[in-house]
């Protein structure tokens, strides 16, 4: 499937800020079952962009805006050809105890800020194993538990909440689904990594077709599981389905912090207000608007 | 560009201009003392020179030519030539990537030449030579800036500094000179006007316009208003104003309006209608206007207004 996408983040500052340093991870990866056809980035104010590939293989665009500015618009457009990946039939759970497996996936077996697990989570994961000896079945079981436990609610959590709280709140967004799934998998010794990307569906909890061709979405997150004797297998816990043609991968890492779409720092007196929007289409994207930002003062 | 680089360039522009103007002023003062004859004491001439350099409140003791030597070679005196050049060089070192290597090397060699010679000796034995060397080095620095520096923000801040300093020196010299002439006689001697014009490098330019007729109103109007003389206050302010327009990049900044207002006052005031006292006040107004303008440039471009925080953000 050929998918075009347009990522826009619009910052507005109530008083001018300066010396802003930013890094963007929005470019679809070329590989992992997809082909990058085109990628372009535009920054307003117009400043030079420096690009490198980080240690996870994700393209990073960095740019600085040294001069005083009250607005910043980051617009990335990409077009990508996706294929539905092959699905693993099975992978022996005993393979996860293999020293080669542990060595190869060491980083994806460790707890991180967003994926650490407690006794409570480990026992939940163990229950989901249903005494299975197959990693594919176990992963699907854990995905089911996550889906049964937490409810998708936009804006339910802020960035950086830990799995224990997600478990208690019983609500979250795609990142929380992904982090919790990764944490549960790692707690029983299955290597898993967090994936950042785009999902071509008007409802992130429903992998079915969208009503219109051009849709407005947000960035998405899912999980890749290391299946012994097979390789990395992508699953999407938010909509409890395998990852297919509608998923466009940006990159992966231990958790959200390794593939944050956009982060940065700046000097100034004012806090920022931002609006982000992703437009996706299977044809040419018509939308050229910049999402509007409502300042706190205007909201009153 | 980062504000600290902008500030450094602004000050390099000011220091180099100040060094050039100071060496010219000292040179003329040495000559002026010779020509003053018995009418004025050596100390009087030197105290006036200090005032023109805005150093009258620095507590520098006036003992004949010794002042001149200190103003050239005394490292402990912040207004001396050697200190001024050292500060220009420090700023150049800190913002080296914004200067061409030629400009940096020119500033650096001037600094090194002052630091390595026995400057105190040289200033006493052959002040003219020392002053001429500093003056031509400064001109060489400004020349390389003019011929090789891209016309971006760095160049503009450098030029705003240079032009502001130049206008300040011209107006200050005029004010001090005008006040003295007001006390002494209504018509100064021809040689006095020649010295004044030479202090701001205007003698030959003036002759081309007015021939040899030295009249107070003509000299004042030439140094304040004549638009085609690059050291007239009006000309410098015109440059500053257009540089500030370019720096504002389409925005209407308060500092630009301030420069425009001051330039209009300088350009359109009818000097002949002011009278002697009014003229003194007018020159004082210009001078304080220029000092305020320099302060506004600093406030606008180099100083944040109020507390500044480092913010971080994440967006998805």
Layout of helices and strands, plus pairs?
The complex is a heterodimer of chains A (300) and B (316).
Chain A: E1 2-24, E2 34-44, E3 49-53, E4 59-65, E5 69-82, H1 99-104, H2 119-128, H3 135-149, E6 151-152, H4 163-169, E7 171-172, H5 174-187, E8 192-199, E9 215-217, E10 219-227, E11 231-236, E12 241-242, E13 247-253, E14 262-268, E15 272-281, H6 296-299
Parallel strand pairs in A: 6-7
Antiparallel strand pairs in A: 1-4, 1-5, 1-14, 1-15, 2-5, 3-4, 8-10, 8-13, 9-15, 10-11, 11-12
Helix pairs in contact in A: 2-5, 3-5, 4-5
Chain B: H1 3-36, H2 42-52, H3 66-73, H4 81-94, H5 101-116, H6 119-125, H7 127-148, H8 153-184, H9 190-199, H10 203-210, H11 216-224, H12 233-248, H13 254-268, H14 275-301, E1 309-315
Helix pairs in contact in B: 1-2, 1-4, 1-7, 1-8, 1-9, 3-6, 4-5, 5-7, 6-7, 8-12, 8-14, 12-13, 13-14
Task: Tell me what you see in this structure.
Chain A is α+β, with helices and mostly antiparallel strands. Chain A has 6 helices and 15 strands. In chain A, strands 1, 2, 3, 4, 5, 9, 14 and 15 form an 8-stranded antiparallel β-sheet that branches. In chain A, helix 4 links the parallel strand 6 and strand 7. The longest helix of chain A is centred in the middle third of the chain and has 15 residues. The model of chain A has no long low-confidence stretch (mean pLDDT 89). Chain B contains 14 helices and 1 strand; from the N terminus they run H-H-H-H-H-H-H-H-H-H-H-H-H-H-E. In chain B, helix 6 packs across helix 7. Chain B starts with a helix and ends with a strand. The mean pLDDT of chain B is 88. Classes of the chains: A alpha+beta (300), B mainly alpha (316). At the A-B interface, strand 1, strand 14 and strand 15 of A face strand 1 of B.
């Amino acid at each position: 499937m050929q998918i075009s996408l347009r990522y826009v983040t619009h910052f507005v500052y109530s008083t001018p800020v300066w010396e802003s340093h930013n890094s963007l991870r929005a470019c679809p990866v070329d590989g992992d079952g997809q082909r990058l056809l085109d990628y372009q980035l535009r920054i307003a104010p117009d400043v030079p962009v420096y690009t490198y590939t980080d240690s996870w293989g994700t393209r990073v665009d960095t740019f600085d805006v040294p001069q005083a500015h009250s607005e910043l618009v980051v617009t990335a457009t990409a077009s990508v050809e996706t294929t539905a990946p092959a699905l693993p039939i099975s992978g022996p759970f005993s393979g996860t105890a293999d020293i080669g497996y542990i060595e190869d996936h060491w980083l994806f077996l460790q707890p991180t800020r967003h994926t650490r697990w407690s006794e409570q989570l480990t026992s939940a994961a163990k229950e989901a194993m249903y005494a299975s000896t197959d990693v594919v079945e176990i992963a699907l079981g854990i995905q089911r538990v996550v889906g049964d436990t937490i409810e998708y609610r936009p804006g339910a959590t802020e960035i950086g909440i830990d799995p224990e709280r997600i478990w208690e709140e019983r609500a979250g967004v795609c990142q929380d689904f992904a982090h919790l799934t990764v944490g549960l998998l790692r707690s029983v010794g299955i290597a898993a990594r967090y994936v950042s990307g785009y999902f071509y569906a008007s409802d992130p909890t429903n992998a079915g077709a969208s009503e219109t061709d051009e849709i407005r979405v947000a960035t998405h997150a899912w999980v890749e599981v290391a299946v012994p004797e097979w390789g990395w297998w992508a699953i999407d816990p938010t909509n409890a389905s395998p990852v297919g043609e509608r998923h466009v991968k940006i990159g992966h890492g231990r958790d959200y912090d390794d593939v944050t779409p956009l982060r940065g720092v700046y000097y100034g007196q004012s806090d920022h207000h931002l609006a982000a929007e992703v437009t996706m289409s299977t044809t040419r994207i018509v939308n050229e608007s910049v999402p509007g930002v409502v300042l706190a003062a205007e909201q009153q | 560009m980062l504000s600290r680089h902008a500030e450094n360039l602004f000050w390099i522009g000011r220091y180099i201009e100040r060094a050039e103007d100071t060496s010219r002023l000292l040179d003329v003062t040495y000559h002026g003392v010779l020509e003053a004859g018995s009418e004025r004491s050596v100390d009087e001439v030197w105290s006036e020179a200090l005032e023109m350099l805005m150093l009258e409140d620095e507590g520098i003791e006036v003992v004949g030519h010794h002042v001149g030597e200190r103003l050239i070679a005394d490292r402990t005196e912040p207004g001396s030539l050697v200190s001024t050049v050292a500060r220009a060089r420090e700023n150049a070192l800190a913002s080296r990537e914004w200067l061409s290597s030629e400009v940096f090397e020119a500033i650096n060699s001037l600094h090194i030449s002052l630091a390595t010679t026995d400057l105190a000796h040289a200033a006493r034995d052959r002040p003219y030579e020392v002053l001429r060397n500093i003056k031509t080095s400064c001109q060489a620095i400004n020349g390389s800036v003019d011929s090789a520096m891209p016309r971006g923000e760095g160049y503009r801040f450098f030029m705003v500094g240079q032009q502001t300093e130049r206008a300040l020196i011209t107006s200050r010299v005029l004010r001090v000179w005008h006040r003295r002439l007001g006390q002494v006689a209504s018509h100064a001697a021809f040689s006095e006007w020649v010295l004044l014009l030479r202090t701001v490098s205007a003698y030959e330019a003036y002759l081309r316009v007015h021939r040899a007729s030295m009249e107070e109103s003509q000299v004042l109007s030439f140094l304040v208003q004549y638009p085609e003389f690059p050291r007239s206050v009006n000309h410098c302010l015109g440059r500053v104003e257009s540089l500030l327009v370019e720096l504002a990049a389409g925005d209407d900044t308060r500092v630009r309006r301030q420069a425009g207002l001051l330039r209009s006052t300088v350009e359109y005031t009818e000097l002949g209608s002011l009278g002697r006292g009014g003229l003194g006040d007018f020159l004082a107004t210009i001078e304080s206007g220029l000092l305020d303008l320099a302060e506004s440039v600093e406030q606008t471009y180099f100083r944040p207004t109020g507390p500044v925080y480092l913010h971080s953000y994440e967006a998805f």
